[in-house]
Amino acid sequence: MSDIARIAGVSASTVSRALAGSTLVAAAKRDEIRRLARERGYVINTTARNLRLQRTQSISVAIPLGHEAGQSLADPFLTEMIGHVADRITQRGYGMFLQKIVPPMDDWLPQLIGSHRSDGIIVIGQSTEHAVLEAAAEAYRPLVVWGGRLARQSYCTVGTDNVAGARSAVEHLIQAGRRRIVFLGDPAVPEIGLRYQGYLLAHERAAQQVVPAQVVPAHLTADTAYEAMRAFIGAAGGPGAAGAFDAVFGATDVIALSAVRAITAAGLSVPGDVAVVGYDDIVMASHANPPLSTVRQDVQRGAHMLVDLLFRRMEGEDTPSATMPADLVIRESSA
Amino acid sequence: MSDIARIAGVSASTVSRALAGSTLVAAAKRDEIRRLARERGYVINTTARNLRLQRTQSISVAIPLGHEAGQSLADPFLTEMIGHVADRITQRGYGMFLQKIVPPMDDWLPQLIGSHRSDGIIVIGQSTEHAVLEAAAEAYRPLVVWGGRLARQSYCTVGTDNVAGARSAVEHLIQAGRRRIVFLGDPAVPEIGLRYQGYLLAHERAAQQVVPAQVVPAHLTADTAYEAMRAFIGAAGGPGAAGAFDAVFGATDVIALSAVRAITAAGLSVPGDVAVVGYDDIVMASHANPPLSTVRQDVQRGAHMLVDLLFRRMEGEDTPSATMPADLVIRESSA
DNA sequence: CCCCACCTTGAGATCGATTGCGATGGCCAA
DNA sequence: TTGGCCATCGCAATCGATCTCAAGGTGGGG
Question: How far apart are CA B234 and CA A22, in angstroms?
Fold first, then answer.
């Protein structure tokens, strides 16, 4: 900037003001300086500007992958979410700083906050980090989390009604005549735990008709879910066997689609032998073969709410959590 | 930092050195200072650090969406690519700054470079920005682009062999007995243009057998591609009509899958009446109904190459462009 | 007992911008 | 001619870290 100032024969202060469009500098001189800066290809150094102004005009998006070291940001649900969040942030004129968090790392959030790298933080998925979020939210306001709404939670979340959504999915399976419905997923993950509650609720309501709930632990990646399902099928025996099952509720679409693969690979049919329902309604769900029944989360709307709530928080407002409806979408995999 | 220094009874210099793990400060004092900083929740201010060190420990990923204002970062191919790139960057200990570029904006790249926000830049897709990239590459080294390899191009690209890949796809259609193969896509986009060349090459080779090449312009989003295909079907008439066609080569999988939807919606069957082949092999392609034949780009490998080449460039090396093979994957949509 | 190394530490410059406050000069009215 | 106001502009402090250079303290050897 001082170079431009020297060339223009003014001080750096004036250049700064001219480029900022301040009326404190004469219009003619302002235009002259701007022209000069453009010609010389001068661009304000963002780092220095951020330091001086104490704001960065950018948002951090952190994605904790605690339950699955192998889970990649390339996961279909995450990428959809990231894409929509990025769209919205860009639309607001902010930049987006993307960060993958791979625990064990106990102080990633204080680090991220303290580094002052961004003006606000969006965390996608609670993963194992509920306590960390809880602790940070006390002192740091501009923080919004995509995930399940837990009891006594002080941070601001956006998400769908996991309990109701899962419950409607399982009730749909029961109404369709299914009697042994397996829950495929890891209830230790907060969101999954809520979906499991919904699954249990549906079972309680129909206790006379269905066999007791049964969980098959499965992580969030396609490969591990496939393997979990494959192993379970092997242990359960074929249709009609003692441990037989006639439906699977996958905690996510990725898990459910993996289950479909494992089931068909075992020579069973979907939905003939086993009905399958997932959760998320990722783009792939409707394109799958057979098309996957699932509980739809409106990711785009969720992403917009995340960003919009964050901006309100950055302006000092203390926004409450938001829960969106989760709508059952019935397709062929459970027809 | 000066607060910590005061509490510890030392100077800021010493705190800085202690936190950096410098051996210049006595071991006992170093541990003491570190403990104090942790207790107080002190975190080094990244902005100030970046300014002083003249590096940011982060990479910009820019995505120009020139040909389609409505195209979102949520596009399946882009999200897969972003996810893998993010994984690799994170693995290197760097942060990732994601930026969506919506032309017309002539100086986004000089701006991005000049802002010194990142230590290197990855551009995903040339879109309409070939000239901009060309101009910037002269003076700025740490820049790598995902896209097509064009003649007389001075910037470093990573991509698949679009011409050969497209050609193998079209030759496959011809061998399968298809005679009127429509190219669905916009050849003005550099990568798509190369695929169109491959399409033409295959037609030249089999000029006696097939009818001349025919382009149906289609943008890169699912909706516009669907609409383009629908309109074309309406104009072409049914099977056996004068303008009838028996195959579609979609410039991307998103386009091809939209074509499948439009074709089946018109009462035609895939592959019975019309065979369809795409390009990319996005995750959805194999899950589609029918599973989509396509030209596979190894996105993960491509993402890793992008990042790895960029780091070599950041160290001053002048890396050449890299072209990966594009492998035809035959599935039911063209069987 | 002195001096010289060496080990530690601190003062201050620096990175590149922004901005409060004071200074300058021009112009108009008294 | 001079005082006063206003439109402009520049000086210098500031943001929070890093690093050079030099000084302080300690210990060992002569």
Answer: 57
Nucleotide of closest approach to B20 (CA, C1') = D18
Q: Which fold has domain A162-297?
A: Rossmann fold (3.40.50)
Q: In this predicted model, what pLDDT tens digit does every residue of A40-61 receive, in sequence order?
A: 999 999 999 999 999 999 999 9
Closest among B269, B61, B91 to A100, alpha carbons compared: B91
Task: Give the pLDDT band (50/70/90) at residue A238.
Answer: low
Q: Is B332 buried (19+), middle (13-18) or exposed (0-12) by CB count in 10 A?
A: middle
Strand-strand pairing, B120-124 and A143-146: unpaired
Residue B149 is predicted with a pLDDT of 92
What was the pLDDT predicted at A52? 94
Q: How far is the CA of A334 from the C1' of D27 (A)?
A: 83
Torsion of CA A47, A51, A55, A56, to 10 degrees: 10
- The span from the CA of A96 to the CA of A61, in Å, is 7
Which among B127, B217, B56 is positioned nearest to A95, based on CA atoms? B56
| Separation in Å, CA of B198 to nearest CA in chain A | 28
Chain B interface includes A283 (CB < 8 A) = yes
Exposure of A253 by Cβ count < 10 A (0-12 exposed, 13-18 middle, 19+ buried)?
A: buried
Q: What is the mean pLDDT of chain B?
A: 91
Domain locations in chain A? Answer: 2-44, 58-159+299-324, 162-297
B144 within 8 A of B334, measured Cβ to Cβ: no
Nearest to A83 among B58, B74, B291 (CB): B74
| Owner of token pair 């917009």 | A304
DSSP state of B68: -
**CA A187 to CA B160: how far, in whole Å?**
41
Cβ pair A97:B97 closer than 8 A:
yes
Summarised one tens digit per residue, pLDDT across range A64-82 is 987 665 667 778 899 889 9
Strands B247-250 and B327-329: unpaired
CATH match for B58-159+299-324 among 1.10.645.10, 3.40.50.11240, 3.40.50.2300, 1.10.10.10: 3.40.50.2300
Chain A residue with CA closest to B59: the answer is A97
Q: What does residue A237 show for φ and ψ, rounded to 5 degrees?
A: 80, 175
Instruction: Say whether B162-297 and B58-159+299-324 share the same fold.
Output: yes
Tell me which residues of chain B have a pLDDT lower than 50: none
A1 pLDDT exceeds 60? yes
- Tell me, yes or no, if A114 comes closer than 8 A to chain B by beta carbon: yes
Nearest by Cα to B198 from B18, B328, B68: B328
pTM: 0.90
